[in-house]
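A quick aside before the break. I want you to see a complete sequence-to-structure record at least once, exactly as it would be stored in a machine-readable document. Don't worry about memorizing anything.
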Amino acid sequence: MPKRLLVVESPGKVKKLSQILGSDWIVRASCGHIRELSDEGEDSLGFIMEGSSVRCNYIPRDQRSKETIQQLKAAVKQVDEVVLATDPDREGETIAWHLKEVLGLREPKRVVYSEITASAVRGAIANPRKLDFNLIGAGLCRDCLDKLVGYKGSPLVWALNNGAKSVGRVQSATLHLICQREREIQTFVPQDYWSVWVDYAEGFRAFYKGTANSPQEAPEQETETHDDAAANNTETPESKRVLSEAEATRLVEEARRYPHQIIQIEGKTVHRQPPPPFTTSTLQQAAGSKLKFTPDKTMLLAQKLYEAGLITYMRTDSVMLSPEFVKSARQWLEQNDPQNVPQKLAKHRSAKTAQEAHEAIRPTDVFRPSAQLRQELPADEFNLYVMIWKRAIASQCCSARLRKTQVIAQSGQLLWQARGQVVEFYGYARYWNNLSKDTVLPLLQQGQALTLENAAHEKKQTQPPPRYSEPKLVQLMERKGIGRPSTYAPTVATLKKRGYVQLTKDNLQPTDLGLEVDAFLQKALPDLLEAEFTAKMEDALDAIALGKQGWQHYLTTWNQNYFAPALTKAKTVVFTSDTAKASPVERKYETSRTRCPHCNNFLAKIKSTKVKKKYFLKCVSGCENTVLFWNELNKKWELPRNKESRDKNPQTPPVKLTSYPCPVCKKPLEEYSYVKEGQNKTMLRCSAQESRQDKKHKDVAYFSTQKGWWSPKFGELDC
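That is the input. The structure line, written in tokens, reads:
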């Protein structure tokens, strides 16, 4: 009989862990968070702030969570010991606490591991610890903060009546970055300039650098950066910018008039250090730029690789590697690439806020044959695994060695510059090649005369700053401290889902709706959009996780000193400002051929993914709340079936009041008939007319089943 129960987060881990632990163990999954803050209390927050204390009311997230809790309680009764092995981060620790609470565990053992391998799992179980209540506090604080901002801030944008759905602590600050860039693009004024060059018969091109008697510019500093978000595009070399065509023509004529001679040759060897192994952010950036994966797709694939025991935990901001992996990587290099074994490893620094107890993302077994994995894994998973493997190995290699050359020629008073680069030793770039292509210059000597073959100029134009690609946005969020590794991908996905941004040629462009929301929030809650302000909130959560600050005191103080007064001020913006003026772009809708039943003007098509036809009709000519929905059964546009529409259209079937009370406001539920996919159906909903627009009532819906009325949110309806 099994004696011990191991509870993890993801069901995808259960099979692998069961194989590792054997028959003495039961392995069960919580399926992520099992509880959430209820929608009770003031503004449906689910928590109450009194003085400097916070009382939270948590309930099961949904019906599946209720069933999971019952299954886990049954499993607890079968064993002598319960071990909590949720993910090794803030959210994982918080989930472990929720499990302790709902399962009635007094002193549960907590184990963490960064890879699902036999040695790591057994080692973790042999060294359990107690729950970390500092981490739990940070998780609870994050939960309350997000709901406080979302539930109290979102009604501000609902009042715009333009389809805006939500405000978010991380979401709104990220949207602001995208909208700021879009406004820079909109206000950008291009300027013409000219690039001037000469071609020599000796086989190279040089670009105009300036004049011999002009002050010399400071030499360019060699910067060693590994930009994982950059596409593999090399910039086209240009001359010093010439601002008029007449001047460019004069320079070309002067280049043709005077002989050319080399006056300076500089050569130097440059070493480029290997890049660090992947963090969550750099993995998303590299997968986006190299594999064209969205951040959420990258994390989904990485989760599957982690659950299969192929890589370490994929939510991390640390670049640290275990000594065991460093040793095995060195052994692999000694066997397969001995010239690439460094005498001294490059030092990689994690961000200040990184949790150094975590590892970077790496393969669990560097010797695992890729040919075997190619057969076992889907193509996308395999490609992501190979990228992680290459990056981890590259981080343990020698530096790359480059020979850089600069040649300066002179004709009259004009100076011409050519640059060359040759990779002498690839080092880490054998596995992670982020070096620009070789530019080979011929063998040249100081004082050598050159034969001019051609001189010319090309008109160019300054370009606006580019829109952010998804990898670039993740990089920017990390650099500005907006969010943490677990939030980058969900935030970008939410912005797209809300209709605030869209992909245009693989770049993120704010929609008219996104620009409107951002313009309004700049007036209503300007601090919440500033990256520095949001980053300070993340820093506070990190301080709570380290035990340097109490979470309840921080939350209540933040609300009292900033958020509550800011909301009071913001509400004056909502009711006094002209939202049309706040909108940078006038919203345009496609017009239908159906007319409004009240003013007879043509109705507008409003896109919506919630209806089968993908849009509904709305009057935008002043008839407030006049909307029509497509009735598939009758093949015509109809008013929604509520009391107001029945008054205007008596043929609409009446609703029937029941004796069941609404779980939110206690008013009677009404039995409502509707048609779905050609079938007549019934449901129970609140009879209060105001409930249609009330967020507290959004989940009040009971559906007819064989056992009676049932709600996904509230469960079975008691008779």
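Two observations worth writing down. The two ends are 42 Å apart (CA to CA). Residues 575-586, 642-653 have pLDDT under 50 and may be disordered. We'll return to this after the break.
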